[in-house]
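Thread: "does anyone have the structure for this chain?"

Original post by V.I.:
We have the sequence but no experimental structure in hand. Need at least a predicted one for the grant figures.
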Amino acid sequence: MVKSLFFKVAFLFLLSAIILSIESVVYQNVNYLNKLKNIDPNDISSINYIELPKILQAWPGAEKLINPHKINLLKSNDKIKRIHKGPNNRIVADVYFRSPDLEDNAEKRSAKLIYTFPQLTDVTDSLILMTGEVEGKILGQGHLGSRMQLEITDINGKKMRGPKIPFIFENKKIYLALRPTIIEPIPMGSAQDNFNIKAVREISVLFIASINIGSFPASGKIFIDNIYLIRQLNQINRFTKSDIQRVTRDNINIGYKLRKMRWDKETPDFFVGINYPWNNYGWDVGKNPYGKPENAGWSANQDKLKNDFIYLKNSGINIVRIYIFFDLRAGLTYSDGKLIGFDKYVRKDIEAMFKTAGEVGVKIIPVLFDFGIADGQKIGVGEHPELIFSGQKYNFLANIVRPLLKDMDTWNSQYGEPVFAVELMNEPENMPALLVPNYYQSLSVWFKDLANIIHNETKFKVTLGTSSIVDMQRWWSNIDIDIWQFHFYKYMLHEHDIWPQKLKRQDIKINGIIFAGEIQPYDIKNNIQLLKNNGYNGILFWAWNSTDGYGLRGKPEMDEIVDWINSNK
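Reply from O.Q.:
Generated one for you, tokens below.
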């Protein structure tokens, strides 16, 4: 009897403890949002990141590494026939390309100017800047037009590269910048593993010729004003104001923990899907920013979306990656200069997307944002860095994005759960705003908050469209990502010690599902089989409806994708 009474008391005590714990967790989850802050907008939104190099050239202590008087210090590769002094004290390089590289090897298509430091140089906390200009029929067109890029090489031959900046016009200056770092992403750039930032031996300027110049041989001129090395970058306070405080609190979310345990046990079949990024970049969701028709999003183009989804479904494609807000050129509503919400078409357009996917029976990966949200391009395009890097993020995430995500969760349930996962952002490492010190930390905090809101308010899985398998592992492993993805194009080969398709899944130190979210459509069947054999969970080719040279609609590559799917049912 005493023993029985003891067990009853112990059971009641344990039950009470569990109830109290649950109540505590519920209370925490109800209050997972921090107290909202009313911080006046600072001048972050006024920064044009592309113009930042131009501003910093006048920074005190900026060192001119290369100028017309040091031409004799420059070396070059075989694509440059002569280096000489031009008008206005500019350095001129005469370039010559005998033929395009049929293998799409950017290394073989690069004209290269090389400056060797007199001694090994520590480039920590510095910025390398230059301006470039071209003349002649060597530009090419489209997504893979001719570009220029800064590169540094360390004592061991390891390379670090800055953004590839495209040339749109002849005789029009472009600004190049490289902030050497091994602790943060390099926007639209890369660094090889174990790069020695304290022992740099040379700086190179690369002109990467387009494969679609028009006719070969092709010749032209490259003009360079100066190359600057700016040190003590941490003293530039005007451009480093960013909010790194959390909008939400991390706490025990029982619902998410239980879902996560179930997801971790899932072993999904290998999937082959496609990117269907947009009908109109930037305004498939929200009011048309360019005039009439006012409603030009998915709710007005649902038939087109449905017909394309049906075609893809009948072709064996079951997973489709599709964008929502892009760079936020559309969708936002303001009152007296204050952001108050989304416009009247946003919810209609997103619900149309969910409804169509549910009716057709395809799974979708809605991409919430694109790195263009802070890329410094303010003419005719979206630009809202303040919603990430300033105090305006509190209102945006908690009061505007959070209710929309709850509605998306409702539509997902209503239309047969068509959402495979929700993607936080496409290729965040390529955001030019990350050129500014401290902005990477601010972006990481923003992702933690956004993922936390999704996990607390919805039943969605979270993914992130990392630009490469290297960046996926380097920069975002501290984010609560449920499904990992990476992107790969052949022009990224120099970033990888081994092609991601040939890298074994067990060699990647990240848990969970991993798939290729964007793959250039080449060597279709071999790439699919390599990823499958090496333990990855899927592949999404770029892209069904793109106009960047990779479009798959009506192309033989699409037939290859369909053939593989049909052969492996």
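V.I.: this helps a lot. Residues 5-28, 39-43 have pLDDT under 50 and may be disordered.
O.Q.: and The longest strand covers residues 218-231.
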